Amino acid sequence: MIMESRQINRKKALLRVLLYFVVFDICLATLYPYFVMLTTALKSRPEIFAMNGKVFPIKAIWSNFLDIWQKAPMAKYMINSIIIATGSTAIAMVCGIPAAYALARMKFKGQTAFLGFIIVSQMFAPVVLLIGIYKVMQFLKLTNSLLGLIFINAAFNQAFTIWLLRGTFLSISPEMEQAATIDGCNRVQALLRVLLPVAAPGIVTTLIFIFINAWNEYTVALCLISSDTLKPLTVGINIFNGYNMIEWQYLFAASLFAIMPVVILFMSIEKNLTSGLTAGGVKG
Amino acid sequence: MRSKKHSSLQNRAEPYLWILPSVLLMSIFIIVPIGCVFYMAFSKITKAGMVKGFNGIENFAKVLKSRAFGVVLSNTLIWTVVVVVLSTVLGFILALLLNNKFKGRKIARAIIVFPWATTLVIQASAWKFIIDTDYGALNTLLKSLGIISSNVNWTPTPGAFFAWEIACGIFVTIPFVCFTALSGLQSIDQSYYEAATVDGGSYWQQMFHITLPLVKPSLTVATVLNIIYVFNSFPIVWTITKGDPANRTDTLVTYLYKLAFYNGKQGEAAAVSVIGFLILLVCASLYMISTLRKGDE
User: Fold this and answer.
1) What CATH code would you report for B58-296?
2) What does the alpha-carbon distance between residue B123 and residue B92 come to, in Å, rounded to a whole number?
3) How close A217 gets to chain B, by Cα (Å)?
4) Could you give the CA distance from residue A249 to residue B82 in angstroms, rounded to a whole number?
5) Per residue in B33-57, pLDDT tens?
6) A124·B121 Cβ contact <8 A
């Protein structure tokens, strides 16, 4: 009996070591591209193209991280990214909150059709519709403008916004709002004063998720924006990615600036986001 | 009496007012472009993008006749199926690992979220640099570890390039699957496992009778969304090879982008878009049927 339990313990310990080993290796592999970007961003151009290059830079050239701000309108790109991401989030929320509220709290004809419409809209990625989007933007005189990108990002994130918020609202009992209505609040007041504060965690998750999506968007911006001063970071940094020569050290230094804010934001919402995504699905 | 009637009408109209902004936004920026694309797919369009009347299925005929299209279509299917299947399997396994309690789990979760949060164009640039034959980071790393003595050409053929693009696609998709599966796993009531252990159920029995059925809803959502995303994914292929050489690494979306914005063949590009919808529509209708059926239950 004692022998047996000792064997089981040994097996458990072995499995534990294996678990650590596998997870550790996966983490290393995941970080590898970022490690490459960081070490390359710290090298000089000749060192990158040297015949027998080393993994780590011979001497870290931190000035690469400063040079990019002179060699390209990086500050402009960053401001554009912030404007696009903030604007898209604001519009997506202003349109999405009432829609999610109606879906969660009211019964109306066409409700199923509207949900179906949201689901179908998800399958059209902007890239497949680029030609159509381009035509609409030409008509609205919104090509080569940040406002145009804001509308497109907001529209293509509507499905997620409504999906996540509807799940959040459904998970909150309507009793408090009903009590507020009896006390003389109208629906808008009940939403703003009662439901939204309680739903704040879900709303923040949704906000950040849209912000990140819009920040990371590349394809539509690549197609619609032609002036260098209106480009967001994802498109702008490719100024270092020329046809004949790629300035890898600058490209990766700029990339790290573009990645960092959203990676940190993402870590903060990851847990709520994934449970929100699947909860919306299960409650369908 | 009159005011009551008025208010009931108001009540009936109210939900539509609440969804109106959202409907407007999606109509103008999604539905109208869809209409445009369909209209253009059946129209004759000049190089300058002017629509010159209806020309039936001529755009489709041109697309289907072109030699590149077969390659592009089979690439797209390989790309979608391989990336979705492998990232689902690997992501689920990773979720099972992370569902154990161990020291450093929080750090592991924080690290694994990285590729999900990173914009694809940057992730793809890093991979392009890593696999370069002459100065790539992978060769440098393997040489300094003493595993290889001279540079290896990781991309001797277009197929090899495409395989790397698929690897990159899997790499960036795993976190999404992993975290959706993990949230499904963590919502499973531990008492199921306790009961199964008391009854003498083995690990694999528990896996097939408890874990998989209960995680299935989360995995289904993740898989359907992934099929759509991966099918429509543009930046990875665009950054690493631009679909070259000679369309050998093109997928539908990079192919149609080149048709529309490089070759001035907007009619044909629109036809490719429509073909893409039709393929996805089959997937989406299966999804809708299953979701709506669940709603009726």
Assistant:
1) 1.10.3720.10
2) 22
3) 7
4) 33
5) 999 999 999 988 887 777 778 888 8
6) no
